[in-house]
Amino acid sequence: MQEITAVVNGFSKGFSMTGWRLGFMAGPAWLASACDKVQGQVTSGAASFSQHAAAVGLDSDMGPTMEMTRAFKKRRDLVIDQLKQIPGLIVNNPQGAFYVFPDVSYYFGKSDGTNTIQNADDFSEIMLAEAHVGLVSGSAFGAINASEYPMPPLKKILPRPSKD
Questions:
Q1: Which of 11, 13, 102, 138 could disulfide-link to 89, CB 3.0 to 4.6 Å?
Q2: Do 101 and 146 reside in the same domain of the chain?
Q3: Domain, as residue range, for 68
Q4: What is the pLDDT of residues 52-99, one digit of tens each?
Q5: Which DSSP state fits 145?
């Protein structure tokens, strides 16, 4: 099994090192060698401070990391539960991300009398302008029918009073 197994991971999410672009790969020598050849041609070296931070993360008590994971899972579950209450949204259940990509195609072709939603870009723009909800269109990630909902701190995603 070792000869056909590879692990690829990074520090962005697990150790809150977003933007540092540091990761690792473990696998059989023949695969690691091939990855090294490719990586050496497409990226530059990782900064020494990020390498030191990653080593500290790996050598430290994983308790805080596990606590952070539980907090993110709680936020994810709350966001998913709330999004599932919105008619027409098809909501995925991400297994390890900070983001939810609901399928918003139900709203394509719908209009408020002024604006007609043709795609996820339109949906995201209208949500910002009309509901003051910041989304990123899934088209930026290749998901043409989805809009990304980044998970904010828990206190910011509790239900708001209805305008009705």
A1: 102
A2: yes
A3: 64-156
A4: 999 999 999 999 889 988 888 888 888 889 889 989 999 888 877 667
A5: T
